[in-house]
Write a structure and sequence with these properties.
Radius of gyration: 26 Å
Number of strands: 8
Order of helices and strands: HHHHHEEHHHHEEHHHHHHHHEEHEE
Shape: globular
Strand order of the largest sheet: 1-2
């Protein structure tokens, strides 16, 4: 299959974003774990907790540095590969990104520097304050990124200006407090906390299996299990809230994720397992739980969850109105600025984006055929099976990690010195799960928005830059090579320093009876 500019641009951005997001959740989670560990050190005065903070902080620093490096290219792609997107919505989308860079990221970077170089220059209390501020700054940085992404999903607080042919900001507060953005933020950072907890739990379990650095490993295991259990429970609660927001403002994505081909009488059942069949518009071998989807998506047993067939019928009407809006816009741009044209455009302008879908099939939108309209209707919803399975992979990983944290917390609370080997192996082999879940979740969020770059406003095929296919292949190849090297460097450094353990920080043994320090060997 020959790939065009749109396909290659999407592939490049997807690769860049998904590699970058290998680093982000660990940064979010580790920052708070460091703050918790250092808080225990300041309260107890025990050196072991200071060493825990320094050791895990070293791994945090490696991940943070490479995460920043991989994020830079993604920012540039808005200008290189998605220039019309930047032109069309830059006034709105650029604002939270600018705030993130100028305020949150610079603050975060400064605090990271103070964390690493301030141990011998700041008092214990002041250094602890730096660590907590660093943890908060990482979340603040994520907030502005997710505000921008939430607006892409649910573009409120803005209006299309027919004179400038651009979207313009009307209410910054609506953009910030966009319900989709807020739900995405808390859900994403909670997933990051889970990632950090699994990371610490898995490496601590490796030490326990090897019988080395035991005091350090047991305490790290206990903190990670408690923090992880609370985080995993919050992810589930916030995931439920995310499902409600989907049912409210992103009905197409919800229907695709749940393979709801048709609208059924309320309350809708949740499909635990099945094989979506695009051709027959059915889900084969479906295993359903009655009423659950209705409760998640509508918070009621009387409201329906719209199916894809019914949503396509609504899209048909919106495409027809959008076709009219597109024609009126063209007439206005050609000089017809009569009150009748302006008033009618204002009446149908909300569907202009749907009219733009037709530009993928014809250059003459005004005379689009029934076949063109039918194609636009079919492409107004994403493919079901990738979303259906990605969502269930995410949920399966989440349930597995919840079981892991519950078992780990139980044994930590019982103060079981020797944890069961099955639990330690379970924790060790669970190390990839949070990343699989995070990547699957982002795939659902972004692929589920298609065919829109900005939901119901700007189709993806119109958002790209006018580049040649060879240009994109070259940049894509360069990014693949560089990012592969970055991932290899991350894994090598993480493995190297994780193997060293906390014993690399001193030459003696911990005196656990006294907050004193370390007994010399």
């Amino acid at each position: 299959m020959q790939m065009d500019i749109v396909d290659l641009s999407r592939l490049q951005f997807a690769f860049t974003a998904m590699i970058h997001f290998l680093f982000v959740p660990l940064t979010l989670g580790m920052a708070f774990l460091l703050a918790i560990m250092e808080s225990v050190y300041v309260m107890t005065g025990k050196t072991i907790y200071r060493d825990m903070t320094k050791f895990w902080g070293k791994l945090f620093g490696i991940n943070f540095a490479l995460g920043v490096t991989t994020g830079i290219a993604m920012e540039f792609q808005f200008g290189t590969n998605w220039s019309y997107y930047s032109h069309y919505v830059g006034d709105i989308f650029g604002a939270p990104l600018a705030i993130e860079a100028l305020m949150a990221f610079f603050l975060e970077s400064t605090l990271v520097g103070l964390f690493f170089f301030g141990w011998d220059r700041l008092s214990k209390e002041k250094h602890l304050a730096v660590t907590w501020l660093m943890a908060l700054a990482t979340n603040l940085s994520a907030l502005w990124i997710l505000v921008a992404n939430g607006w892409m999903q649910h573009p409120i607080g803005s209006v299309f200006n027919i004179d400038t042919m651009r979207m313009e900001l009307t209410s910054f507060s609506e953009v910030i407090f966009n319900p989709v953005a807020q739900v995405k933020f808390v859900h994403t950072v909670s997933a990051g906390y889970v990632t950090g907890a699994v990371f610490v739990l898995a490496i601590s379990s490796w030490y326990l299996l090897k019988g080395r650095d035991l005091p350090f490993a047991r305490r790290s295991f206990a903190i990670a299990s408690a923090f992880g259990l609370a985080s995993a429970l919050s992810v589930i609660v916030l995931g439920d809230e995310s499902g409600y927001e989907l049912g409210d403002v992103q009905k197409v994505k919800l229907a695709a994720v749940e393979a709801e081909w048709h609208t059924h009488p309320a309350p809708a059942a949740f499909t635990v397992f099945g094989v979506p069949n695009e051709q027959t518009q059915t889900t084969d071998y479906a295993l359903k739980i009655p009423a659950v989807l209705g409760l998640i998506a509508t918070r009621s047993v009387t409201e329906e969850v719209a199916g894809l067939s019914e949503l396509k019928e609504k899209h048909l009407q919106r495409i027809i109105r959008g076709q009219e809006a597109y024609v009126l816009m063209t007439q206005y741009r050609a000089g017809d600025k009569s009150p009748a044209t302006i008033n009618r455009f204002n009446e149908v302008s909300a569907d202009l984006g749907y009219g733009m879908l037709l530009t993928a099939y014809t250059d003459d939108v005004a005379n689009a055929t029934a076949e063109h309209i039918a194609q636009a209707v079919e492409d107004s919803v994403p493919k079901v099976w990738p979303l259906f399975w990605s969502f269930r992979i995410m949920v399966a990983c989440g349930v597995s990690m919840l079981v892991l944290f519950a078992a780990a917390f139980w044994h930590s609370a019982k103060r079981t010195v020797d944890k069961p080997r099955w639990l330690l192996k379970f924790a060790l082999f669970s190390l990839p799960l949070p990343w699989i879940a995070c990547e699957a979740g982002w795939f659902v969020a972004e692929y589920g928005r298609q065919p829109w770059a900005i939901g119901e406003i700007l189709p993806t095929h119109l958002a790209v830059s006018q580049l040649s296919v060879s240009d994109i292949w070259f940049s894509l190849g360069t990014i693949v090579v560089l990012y592969t090297i970055f991932v290899i460097i991350e894994m090598w450094l993480m493995t190297k320093y994780a193997r060293l353990g906390s014993s690399s920080l001193h030459t003696g043994k911990y005196d656990l009876e006294s907050p004193a320090t370390v007994k010399e060997a």
